[in-house]
Amino acid sequence: MRALVTGGAGFLGSFLVERLRARGDEVVVPRRVEYDLTRFDDTARLFDAARPECVFHLAAEVGGIGANRANPGRYWFANQSMGVNVLEQSRLYRVAKVVVAGTVCAYPKFTPTPFSEDDLWNGFPEETNAPYGVAKKSILVGAQAYREQYGLDAVYLLPANLYGPRDNFDLDSSHVVPALIHKMVDGPDEVVLWGDGTPTREFLYVEDAADAFLLAADRYSGAEPLNIGTGAEISIAGLAATIAELTDFEGEIVWDTSMPNGQPRRRLDTRRAEELLGFRAATPLREGLQRTIAWYRAQAPARAG
């Protein structure tokens, strides 16, 4: 198979590309400096060069609460534009399969837990990440519309919060797990965290997510989105305590309650993915965090240099 992986040099994409190449697929990984997927003409040039049989659309502009608050317009525009352009070029080039990465941020703020795919449209997303979540959710609508009108076999996955080696550890744009690891490994005696620690999140190890995307390409051709996760949640306070233990952080954790908590709870109902893909996450959170911390510590010479 000749596969195009947008975002293939990124966090999730790098693991997916490794798996595709290991099984003998030919993989095209576009460089952002050559192809700006928010531009229709650049996306057209990419497809003309790649001529893919299968497309994994993972490219996104995304970050934690702070990055979402700082870039609502950009995140709405960039993520929607990239998705629209990839779907249209996939139609024009008659791509056999498209697998699109959605986001748990698309769910309504007060979705009953565990989040069922049937609840995706029952409310507005949490305000701090709504522009990003709405933009990504609009690509689901496009994928379903292109399936209905043009027969494009586009499937849409809703992964839980990803973490693992090769994540983005930049404190200005990172998500909660890499931010906590960065602060507790490299930080001072006091670590200040946003909110009050009560919100819950579900975390999916990145290599498990890569396996799910491969399974979706091979086994799923449905119009409805699929949740990809572990089905387990942990409070941000519990996560912070776990990472403090695993990093031997002995300083004080201070909660800045003047800053937003984000969505109150997140936990996915993963039964459909298990039934339709045969997917079940293999990596317990504690084990995945240990691997991630070890990888981050191994990068210390590069950070110092």
Question: Which descriptors apply to this entry?
Answer:
11 helices, single chain, 6-stranded parallel β-sheet, 305 residues, 12 strands, two-stranded parallel sheet, alpha/beta
Low-confidence stretches: none
Fraction of helical residues: 40-55%
Mean pLDDT: 96
The termini sit apart by: 40 Å
Number of alpha- plus pi-helical segments: 11
Query: Given the C-alpha coordinates, what overall shape results?
Result: globular
Q: Characterize the largest beta sheet: strand count, sense, and whether it forms a barrel.
A: 6 strands, parallel
Could you walk me through the main structural features you see in this protein, from its secondary elements to its overall organization?
- It is a single chain.
- The protein is α/β, with parallel strands linked by helices and 305 residues long.
- The strands form four sheets. It has a six-stranded parallel sheet, with helices on both faces.
- Helix 6 (176-186) packs parallel to helix 8.
- It is built from eleven helices and twelve strands.
- The longest helix has 21 residues, at 72-92.
- Helices cover 44% and strands 15% of the residues.
- The N and C termini lie far apart (40 Å).
